[in-house]
Amino acid sequence: MAVKLTFTVQLGDDIRRIGIPDETLTYGELLLIVEEIFRKKLGSRDKIIIKYKDEDGDLKRISDSSVLLFAIQHNQMLKLKIFPGVGNSRCGSRNNK
């Protein structure tokens, strides 16, 4: 499969480059990818917050699939930062609406 979407994902000082064969990545799928990649660094109660750097270098929160699609469409190389925090549960696809 050819890679159609490439982005970097950073949690602390750990930076990974990810290739996705489909540009229709959903927010829930992105959360699952992040959980898989950083499972050893994330606690079971960590709430995952994902932000991307926009064209001005500002960090913007990705809260759903529409924001993710906008970020993908407006950034050639999407750079994501993961911010874990302690919460009652993950903000992943299991609990997100």
Brief digest:
By secondary structure, the protein is α+β, with helices and mostly antiparallel strands. 21% of the residues lie in helices and 36% in strands.
Describe the structure.
This protein is an alpha+beta fold and 97 residues long. It has one domain: Phosphatidylinositol 3-kinase Catalytic Subunit, Chain A, domain 1 (Ubiquitin-like (UB roll), Roll). It contains two helices and five strands, in the order E-E-H-E-E-H-E. A five-stranded mixed β-sheet has the order 2-1-5-3-4, covered by helices on one side. The longest helix is centred in the N-terminal third of the chain and has 11 residues, at 27-37. The relative contact order is 0.26. Mean pLDDT is 82; it is low at 88-97.
Topology:
Layout: E1 5-11, E2 14-20, H1 27-37, E3 46-53, E4 59-62, H2 65-73, E5 78-86
Question: What CATH architecture do you see?
Answer: Roll
Q: Give the number of DSSP strands.
A: 5
Mean pLDDT: 82
CATH class: Alpha Beta
Major beta sheet, specifics? 5 strands, mixed
- Please give the radius of gyration in angstroms: 13 Å
For CATH, the homologous superfamily is named as Phosphatidylinositol 3-kinase Catalytic Subunit, Chain A, domain 1
Which H/E pattern describes the elements? EEHEEHE
The side-by-side strand order for the widest beta sheet comes to: 2-1-5-3-4
- CATH topology annotation: Ubiquitin-like (UB roll)
**Approximate helicity band:** 10-25%
> In percent, how much strand structure appears in the residues?
35-45%
Number of helices: 2
- What structural class should be given to the helix and strand makeup? alpha+beta
Large-scale geometry:
globular
Number of domains: 1
Distance between the termini: 30 Å
Low-pLDDT runs: 88-97
